[in-house]
Design goal:
The structure holds two protein chains of two kinds. By secondary structure, chain A is mainly α. Chain A has one domain. Chain A is built from ten helices and two strands, in the order ααββαααααααα. A two-stranded antiparallel ribbon of chain A has the order 1-2. In chain A, β1 and β2 form a beta hairpin. The N and C termini of chain A lie far apart (41 Å). The relative contact order of chain A is 0.10. Chain B is α+β, with helices and mostly antiparallel strands. Chain B has a single domain, classed as Oxidoreductase, molybdopterin-binding domain (Sulfite Oxidase, Chain A, domain 2), CATH 3.90.420. Chain B is 19% helix and 21% strand. In chain B, the strands form two sheets. In chain B, strands 1, 4, 5, 8, 9, 10, 12 and 13 form an eight-stranded mixed sheet that branches. Chain B has a five-stranded mixed sheet with strand order 3-2-11-6-7. The radius of gyration of chain B is 20 Å and the shape is globular. Classes of the chains: A mainly alpha, B alpha+beta. The interface between A and B is large, with 34 and 38 residues. The complex binds protoporphyrin IX containing FE. Protoporphyrin IX containing FE binds next to α2, α3, α6 and α9 of chain A.
Chain lengths: 203, 335
């Protein structure tokens, strides 16, 4: 049986990369073909924010899936190799999300941008998350891993905080419906619960 | 029907108001010529008028379409570029159909707007349940171009067709106790999907309200059409309020109930987030919403790389006509 495991790792990397750029290609295509309606700026900002969140979920899902899901010969240990790229795509879409907001909504007005960062609580809460994501991105290389040793793991556990802050960001934007906030909340809980349990067992 | 919407519309494709009017006049002429059986020899069209420019089109009963077709010509020009019909009818906040901007256009088709009636109750001499036909009987319809400023910091310019709310209120004779007017939107979960959702934050029906003097102000319009057509469902068919100096959420859609009251009525967004949405909700660049700066707005359609950002004006540019209503009031307190 051909499974993803039997595909050479380099090919799999390219596959994950392709999955990562498809959302960007899709929204670009929809934009240049004028399919985004009356307010493409808002549509784009939302779209990029949502994909940042999806890649955050994906990178957080790797460990629980690897450790908990096994079916006969099928295992998911190989997913581990791709976690870094998933995380980097989260950072990539967050940066695009912010850039789209700055360029398309604020018209590259940096003074207003700075003002919005501090005056809008739902944006302000994401600041630690953005800083952390950049730090995680910068330290995601093999070299950095070696250099930071044990501290690397401690630093990269802050991704849990990033997830929680991203959720607060979404929750603070709830208007007429809790659907998104509840759905994302449940996903984050499911992703973090195994970690809590593992931590509990260890101590 | 699939409506393909375009975003970066070349300037040449945005209909400036005089052109839209000229086209409409032309279409009217063409239609009457056709009615006289002279269609064949009528002058050939100078340009292809978009379908929506013909008057009295759209869904709704024949009598309403006829009445809309006979509405007075633009009685309130603005001299600002109209937001294209496609955008006005595909980018809406109508939470009964979902929270996405395209949900109303995607889902409102199922809404039955004929027959329709409006209950008028409370402090009036002539309460009752009025069929829409009676509400509109003898009403002179007129076209007015208004700015629409959403609390989310975007805006549009829309040619509405309707009548002043004052004309309706005068008919039902408010009593001396009447100080406020409360409005309610239809509740019909079978046709309004978000009303079936368990995750809705809104306690249906959607409610809005005005002070009586605001309601009687000549700018306050009850709209039944836009761009010469009956209102599309997603825009609040068959009857909606338009209060151009207030944020869009005050302009309640698909109205089934109007109650004149002595006390300030409860209004939907104010009930949910009193710190964010006031009863008055007058457009005011000085008073920010926690989520959106109100100092400026993006006038749609807005280009991507050069967004059409314009300063927001007090009372949405209608200060001369409405500022006296709020004389002596602290607008940062009564937001
Ligand atoms: C970890 C970082 C972030 C993540 C994961 C993220 C994700 C998201 C998501 C999922 C939404 C959609 C919310 C909804 O469903 O209603 C959203 C909306 C939004 N985000 Fe972020 N965001 C992040 C940081 C930021 C930052 C730093 C800014 C501003 C500089 C920002 C500005 C916005 C804006 C303006 C919207 C609203 C779009 C609209 O509905 O008009 N976000 N974000």
């Amino acid at each position: 049986m051909v499974t993803l495991v039997s595909i050479p790792v380099l090919w799999r990397r390219w596959l994950v990369f392709l999955v990562g750029v498809v959302p960007l290609l899709w929204i670009t295509y929809r934009t240049v073909t004028h399919q985004l309606g009356a307010d493409p700026a808002q549509t784009i900002v939302l779209f990029l924010g949502e994909w940042a969140l999806y890649f955050l979920f994906a990178s957080l899902a790797v460990t629980p899936i690897r450790r908990l899901v096994r079916w006969r010969h099928v295992h998911f240990r190989w997913l581990q190799t791709h976690r870094r790229m998933l995380g980097l795509f989260c950072l990539f879409y967050v940066l695009l999300h912010i850039t789209a907001y700055l360029v398309f909504i604020l018209g590259l007005d940096f003074a207003r941008f700075g003002q919005q960062l501090v005056e809008r609580p739902y944006i302000l809460v994401t600041m630690p998350a953005v800083v952390l994501l950049i730090a995680l991105g910068v330290t995601s290389t093999q070299g950095m891993m070696r250099r930071l040793g044990k501290r690397w793991l401690t630093l990269h556990k802050s991704i849990y905080l990033v997830a929680l802050l991203a959720w607060v960001h979404v929750f603070m934007q709830v208007r007429s419906s809790y659907v998104d906030a509840v759905l994302y909340g449940v996903i984050i809980l499911l992703l973090l619960a195994p970690r809590v349990i593992w931590w509990w067992r260890k101590h | 029907m699939l409506i393909k919407t375009r975003t970066d519309i070349p300037a040449s494709e945005i209909t400036p108001e005089p052109v839209y009017r000229a086209r409409r006049d032309f279409m009217r002429g063409a239609m009457s010529a056709a009615a006289l059986g002279l269609g064949a020899i009528a002058a050939p069209p100078l340009f292809a008028a978009p379908a929506h420019v013909a008057r009295g089109e759209g869904r709704g009963p024949d009598w309403l379409r006829a009445q809309i077709a006979a509405a007075d010509e633009n009685t309130r020009a603005l001299g600002e570029t109209l937001t294209p019909f496609e955008h006005v009818t595909s980018y809406n906040n109508f939470y009964e159909f979902g929270q996405g901007k395209t949900d109303p256009a995607d889902k409102a088709d199922a809404l039955t707007t004929d027959p329709w009636s409006v209950e008028i109750a409370g402090e009036v001499a002539k309460p009752g349940v009025y069929p829409l036909e009676d509400v509109l009987k003898g009403m002179d319809l007129e076209e007015r171009v208004y700015r629409l400023r959403c609390v989310e910091a975007w805006s549009m310019v829309i040619p509405w067709i309707g009548f002043p709310l004052a004309a309706l209120l005068q008919r039902v004779e408010p009593t001396s106790k009447a100080k406020y007017v409360a409005f309610e939107t239809l509740v019909r979960p079978a046709e309004m999907p978000a009303q079936r959702s368990r995750f809705s934050t809104i306690d249906w029906p959607y409610r809005e309200g005005l002070r009586l003097d605001e309601a009687m102000h000549p700018l306050t319009l009850m709209a039944v059409g836009l761009y010469g057509k009956t209102l599309p469902n997603q825009n609040g068919a068959p009857l909606r309020l338009v209060v151009p100096w207030k944020y869009g959420f005050k302009s309640i859609k698909s109205i089934v109930k109007i109650v004149l009251t002595e006390r300030e009525p409860k209004t939907t967004w104010n009930m949910m987030q009193p710190r964010e949405y006031g009863f008055y909700a007058n457009v005011n660049p000085e008073v920010d919403h926690p989520r959106w700066s109100q100092a400026s707005e993006r006038r749609l359609p807005s280009g991507l790389f050069r967004p059409n950002i314009i300063p927001t004006r007090l009372f949405n540019g209608y200060a001369e006509e409405v500022a006296h209503l709020y004389k002596g009031m602290d607008l940062t307190r009564y937001y």
